[in-house]
Specification:
Layout (H helix, E strand, L loop, with lengths): L2 H4 L24 H50 L3 H6 L6 H14 L6 E4 L5 E4 L1 H12 L1 H41 L5 H10 L9 H10 L7 H23 L4 H9 L4 H12 L1 H17 L2 H6 L8 H9 L7 H34 L3
Antiparallel strand pairs: 1-2
Length: 363
């Protein structure tokens, strides 16, 4: 057999090289095509530069708006350490106590041993040592926060108790009811679910008077349960809606395997469904914590004696009583009351987003 007949030769026009395979002929663009490619390249480059400029301006605007949203919070924190005299003298100014601390510290660093002149109880300027002046300045700066914490400490404790009881009740009852509505197929289960969801269309103010009369008839006024029980009842609708939507998205094979192993509904709910529902639990918990912490009207009307005021109604009492003219105490109380929500926002943002994106709000 002729070997040359078995070889495949390249077509005419290809380039050959020594001990290398044949290379295909690369067509070069003509002059017209080359100009078109240059125009397209310049257009694409200009579009990229324009897009980068637009992105830069968008980032600048977003940063500006972010700073504007932080301005009220910065103003509140700044006013925590100012005295009433500074409020009446200048509405926007840096705390004078911090200025004194900076001055005393600077003089101590440079070795200046000159006594510091400070006003005594009668208002006269007297020379004091740097250590005493620094202590007085820090005491003046922290007087408002210390007084505010002393006043609102029982309000914070009441709020913590009410919030924990409310969130626990909403999570347990809401998830259990949603499990029944999603796994049990009884007559009218869908109609019952639609009836529960339809109550979301009624504003809460319509049930304000009936709820108050019911709480009064039960003898629960001026107790924690006057707030906890209505909060749990009011949070059930949203919790059932979210939990049922999530439970129906769980794979059926999971429940079949558990039933084959002999697990009942209680075991499936407690040992399988709840551990898998941590993202949704965080969503419902965060929403109820925010609602309970910020609710003002209901705690105010159900605690006529003032012994069980929570932080929202307690701040109103603080702002309308003897501390109404003590601005540093008021601002310190506002700042302290917002710290738990800031901590919640920092640590619960990621679980909250994970719960939302995992199907908690699917239709």
């Amino acid at each position: 057999m002729d070997v040359l007949q078995c070889l495949q030769f390249s077509a005419h026009g290809v380039c050959l090289c020594h001990r290398c395979a044949a290379l295909r002929h690369h067509l070069r663009p003509d002059a017209a095509q080359y100009e078109i490619l240059q125009v397209l390249g310049r257009t694409a480059g200009g579009a990229m530069k324009t897009g980068q400029k637009k992105v830069w301006w968008i980032h600048a605007v977003l940063i500006l708006f972010s700073l504007l949203t932080l301005l009220p919070f910065a103003f509140m924190v700044n006013n925590v350490f100012r005295s009433n005299a500074e409020f009446y003298h200048a509405f926007f100014s840096f705390p004078g106590a911090f200025k004194q601390v900076a001055t005393i510290t600077g003089r101590a660093l440079v070795g200046d041993d000159t006594p510091v002149l400070m006003a005594d109880e009668e208002g006269d300027l007297v020379p004091v040592s740097k250590g005493d002046a620094l202590g007085r300045s820090l005491d003046q700066a922290t007087r408002g926060p210390r007084l505010a914490w002393k006043v609102i400490r029982p309000y914070m404790l009441n709020t913590l108790i009410v919030t924990l009881l409310t969130v626990t009740g909403v999570l347990l009852l809401g998830s259990a009811t949603a499990y029944i509505l999603s796994r049990y197929r009884f007559t009218g289960h869908r109609a019952l679910f639609l009836f529960i969801i339809s109550t979301m269309m009624f504003p809460g103010v319509l049930t304000l008077v009936p709820s108050f009369l019911l709480v009064k008839w039960l003898g629960l006024l001026n107790t924690y349960w006057a707030m906890v029980l209505p909060y749990i009842a009011g949070g059930q609708v949203f919790a059932i809606f979210v939990f049922r939507s999530y439970f129906e998205g769980l794979p059926e094979d999971l429940f079949e395997s558990a039933r084959i192993d002999g697990a009942g509904h209680v075991q499936i709910y407690w040992q399988i469904v709840l551990p898998l529902s941590l993202p949704v639990l965080s969503v419902v918990a965060v929403m109820n914590i925010l609602g309970t912490w910020n609710n003002f009207l209901w705690p105010f009307i159900t605690n006529t004696e003032g012994s069980h005021h929570v932080i929202s109604s307690g701040l109103f009492v603080l702002a309308t009583t003897a501390h109404a003219s003590n601005f540093s105490t008021l601002y310190a109380a506002y700042a302290i009351s917002s710290i738990p929500l800031l901590v919640l926002f920092i640590y619960a943002t990621r679980p909250f987003i994970r719960g939302v994106t995992s199907g908690a709000f699917k239709a």
